[in-house]
# Entry
Amino acid sequence: MPEKVIITAAITGAIHTPTMSEYLPITPEQISDEAVKAWEKGASIVHIHVRDPKDGSPVSDNSLFRQVLSSVKKRCDVVINITTGGGLGMSAAERIKPIPDLKPEMASLNMGSINFGLFPALAKFEEWKYPWEKEYLGRTRDFVFKNTFSDIGIFCQTMYEHGVKPELECYDVGHIYNLKQLIEDGKIRIPVYIQFVLGITGGIGASLEDLVHMKQTADCVIGAPNYLFSVCAAGKMQYPLCVASSVLGGHVRVGLEDNLYLKKGVLAKSNAEQVAKIKELVYEISGRESTTPDETRKILGLKASSNTNF
Ligand code: KMH
Ligand code: ZN
# Structure
């Protein structure tokens, strides 16, 4: 088991909408402030999406990314991981375009296609702050989040060209087999860093058994020396499965991208609150302290932040 645990904070994502929580960061200032505060509480990686500052809808806009990334980099040494999953309905070209421009240390790389279903959230609210929210969530009944072998091949080639370490998002067991194929084809280089993403409608569930099944599959198919893993889980299983990951020797991801709550019925007022909570739980249960950003760079084999372009 690795001695220390890497905590990632996924700051805003593209799953939740402004109606769901007044604390969801929207503007570049809010997103960068949240990232810095998450680092202050122990996150060594921040995973970044950007939103339209006017209405909070997910966008892929290089100048918004640049504002966020340069503001964070000025204030702290946290590792910055940007999304290439983007938001629902974005083309592959839109999703990858920040990579050659900004050359971050890390970026997400989604390992397969799923019917990414956000529609269950529709039942929880009657009134919406912005018209796009209801339409965005409803559309996902028929939305295929497309990540074909060809898409993934282009994405990872672009990342390697620019010195970006991919974090491999696996939403279901088949995605681990996709990864095996991509490694065999020489497209993805070992050792890899996998994010097991549990509890997205359209992917695997978020039970302890689901996590163990993902881990056992990765052990068989990829092989323990060839991969490190982290866990994120949608909604209320965020903390239990992150703690379980830390017991299994994995790393953890929290943040408002995946879960808006601090505990049952209590919205998290910030990403930092969630980071502080998971840091303490992990230490209590598995005795593992969290890494500094430089320790994370060493563990994951990242380039220095001076080699980014922001
Ligand atoms: N949104 C999460 C379910 C990405 O940004 O590329 C997984 C994720 C993917 O973070
Ligand atoms: Zn994301």
